[in-house]
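Q: Study each token:
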Amino acid sequence: MLHSKNLNFTPPFPGSVVKFISPTGGFAEQHGEVFPFIAYAYGQPIGRIAAIINHSHNSYHQDRVGFFGFFDCIENTHVARALFDTAFRVLQKREMTSMRGPYNPSINDECGLLTEGFDKPSFVSMPWNPHYYSALYAEAGMIPVRTLYAWMIPLQGHTPIRVNKIVARLTKRSKVSIRTLNMNDLNHEMSILHRLYNITLDRNWGFYPISLEDLLDAAKDLKAIADPSLILFACMNNREVAFSLSLPNVNELLHRARQRKGLLRFIEMALRIQLQKPQDARLCILGVDPEHQNKGLSALLFYEAYIRTKARYQRSEVSWVEKNNIEILEGAELMGGYRDKTYQIFEKVI
């Protein structure tokens, strides 16, 4: 691995990248095409990239955007330029109008280039890269088009009095109940998440609907790492109208096994996930049905996620959050959070 000597690098779970780039994988079967490339020097890999065509995105937005992802490279502008140019030509040949990324392989997966916060490992399903990548992107003519934040919220202190008063008022007037995910009826719960995900997040830039098949596939991994107490539904009139999804930061466990090689690393990672508990969690998604927005449900659900995470974990990363999502950013700051990492999405006209 190119970054195995960097203390902040967390190797992915074995086989997780292959699953995405494989022509028989879920992304290729449902959404598009992935064209992976590896750069070699003297018989050793020194970089990689994938050109990606996401038919689901382009059909939904009625455009012809091309994508790239899975970029890794040594600190060498010539190698990086060759990788970007290779992906560019693939997309150009297929008449795409731009090259956007990094997406691994879509906006519904790990995405973004880390541009601030290199001095610590990434949280679950968030990317990490060394600091010099920004210069490689710039040299290749990639222009930042979106900024995304990760906020860190310590969970040791008391909730602010102001927040408690706001939540008390919201709870009194909203007549909402909160329930956790039922792991014994996961397929049904995934169908609810599918409905809420697609109606609550469609205002996000670059969004396209996630398929139920994608969620059911994700549920297989969810069983191994999820903490049901951190996956919440807000209900009104016996119907789920909002949700938040937090996950234990299993990257902590993967990071501890980073010195192992081959099969031993796989075994240690699997055992740690089964037997150890992470200290931190990540709030991945929070969404409210548009029909019930502006009723304080977002603030109420954010508070509930905070309280329930606080009972079992030390910190919560809220990520990723678009720069213009003022409601969530202000909520994170109100809870004592601070901006911990910055990510960017880049694009280049073809």
About this structure: DSSP finds twelve helices and 14 strands in the chain. The radius of gyration is 20 Å. The chain has two domains: 16-147, 153-342. The chain has a mean pLDDT of 90.
